[in-house]
Amino acid sequence: MRIRDAVEADAERLAELTGAPTDVMRNLVHDRTVRVADRGSIADTQNVAAAASSDGSESPSERAIAGFVSFDAKPDTVHISQVEGTPAALERLLKEPTRFASQERMSVEMLVAVGETSKREAAEAAGFTEIGSGPRFAGTSTLRYRLEPP
């Protein structure tokens, strides 16, 4: 599995992973830093945009996307806005914003829905600490996780 920058052609697969509209995910790719965990080979992923635009069908690398993380930096804190994927992908993907934050000496925060055990486990394995309740989204309670800079 390799981690790469998301491209606009990935939006359909990201929408499948989240249940969000494709246009929303396309905007996410443009507005945030988004990394994808790709199970495909490097040859499969070198030209994702060209493969997807050739006939409008899904490219091999889109099918191979095991997950993604989106994040942005605010003063002193990197905020993970979304993370989705297989347990193995989650573990790898959380390293992306934490690596950036470590280099910049920033903390990292993320919200996890109470029932999302694999995300909670991945966050804790990455060194995040639960710091309390977060806001409710669509009636679902969340927990706030934070990772302090080294």
Mean pLDDT: 88
Annotated CATH homologous superfamily: Gcn5-related N-acetyltransferase (GNAT)
Number of strands: 7
Tally of helical segments: 7
| Elements, N to C (H/E) | EHHEHHHEEHEHEE
Uncertain segments of ≥5 residues (pLDDT<50)? 42-56
The SS-based structural class is: alpha+beta
Query: How can the largest sheet be summarized?
Result: 7 strands, mixed
Amino-to-carboxy terminus distance: 27 Å
Shape: globular
Helix percent reads 40-55%
CATH architectural category: 3-Layer(aba) Sandwich
Strand order of the largest sheet: 1-2-3-4-5-7-6
- Percent of sequence in beta strands: 25-35%
Enter the CATH topology name. Aminopeptidase
